[in-house]
């Protein structure tokens, strides 16, 4: 069973929920994937040991300028403006050139397919790395780290998800927001936990995230973090839309202090492990695949 943790905006408490939920299950078959590749931090709370690190590559075009006649077919095909072709103009002394912007390239290699002179071949470049190892309570953790300056997070998210085992429970800590990396992270999940806070900002982003999950036809529920602040807007919205509120995590100084020290709060405040386990059992009962669990 795959449970993803998502939120419409950053700083809402996704990783807090993902890590504390993972530690509450005490399942040796549990796997936690941190797909927030631009800022992974689940490993800070799990004290990962014996880490294995491998590079992740994406495909890029390699241009043979001796074969190229600078017709511009590749540039016209690329919808992401990753290729700029300067056509030949002997009268002005221009020999022609191809300029590639790898940060904009999605690696589809469509340019290679449309090139009439077979002047484009497939190459690779490193966009980041994947680290995996064993964390506290025997949790298998996998996380990706995108290289600084890279704009394309989706290939790395997909690479992290290729590490999903065939059996057991998988928790995915998704990137914040509702853009392409989030879609890539939550896709194929059996259930998604949306983390929000009871403020007008939280409500605004929650509504967007709900629309995305309904479009993807992924069942979901809401965890309200920092309850006790803000207003009743999130509660009223969930009630009107028939959205389950799975759990409320209060706005407590002890939780903030444990987070700042890299300690999951279920280890310092009693009874929370049972509450996380309860929402997992509820999700498993309604949406899980029993044979894959325990």
TrEMBL record:
GO terms for molecular function: oxidoreductase activity. Residues 59-88, 96-125 form the 4Fe-4S ferredoxin-type domain. This is (4Fe-4S)-binding protein. It comes from the Archaea. Gene3D superfamilies: 3.30.70.20, P-loop containing nucleotide triphosphate hydrolases (3.40.50.300). Pfam families: CbiA (PF01656), Fer4 (PF00037).
């Amino acid at each position: 069973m795959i449970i993803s943790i998502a939120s419409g905006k950053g700083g809402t408490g996704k990783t807090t929920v993902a890590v504390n939920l993972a530690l509450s299950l005490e399942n040796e078959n549990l796997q936690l994937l941190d797909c927030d590749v631009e800022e992974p931090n689940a490993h800070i709370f799990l004290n990962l040991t014996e880490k294995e690190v491998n590079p992740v590559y994406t495909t890029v075009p390699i241009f043979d300028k001796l074969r190229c006649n600078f017709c511009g077919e590749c540039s016209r095909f690329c919808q992401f403006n990753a290729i700029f072709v300067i056509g030949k103009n002997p009268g002005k002394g221009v020999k022609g050139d191809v300029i590639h912007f790898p940060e904009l390239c999605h690696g589809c290699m469509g340019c290679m397919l449309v090139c009439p002179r077979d002047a484009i071949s497939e190459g690779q470049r490193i966009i980041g790395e994947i680290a995996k190892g064993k964390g506290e309570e025997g949790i298998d953790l996998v996380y990706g780290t995108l290289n600084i300056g890279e704009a394309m997070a989706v290939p790395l998210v997909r690479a992290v998800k290729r590490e999903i085992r065939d059996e057991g429970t998988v928790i995915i800590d998704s990137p914040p927001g509702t853009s392409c990396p989030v879609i890539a992270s939550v896709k194929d999940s059996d259930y998604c936990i949306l983390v929000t806070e009871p403020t007008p900002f939280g409500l605004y982003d929650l509504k967007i995230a709900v629309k995305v999950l309904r479009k993807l036809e992924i069942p979901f529920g809401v965890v309200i973090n920092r309850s006790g602040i803000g207003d009743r807007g999130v509660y009223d919205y969930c009630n009107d839309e028939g959205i389950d509120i799975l759990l409320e995590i209060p706005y407590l100084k002890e939780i903030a202090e444990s987070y700042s020290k890299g300690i999951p709060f279920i280890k310092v405040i009693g009874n929370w492990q049972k509450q996380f386990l309860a929402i997992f059992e509820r999700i498993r009962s309604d949406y899980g695949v029993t044979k894959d669990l325990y």
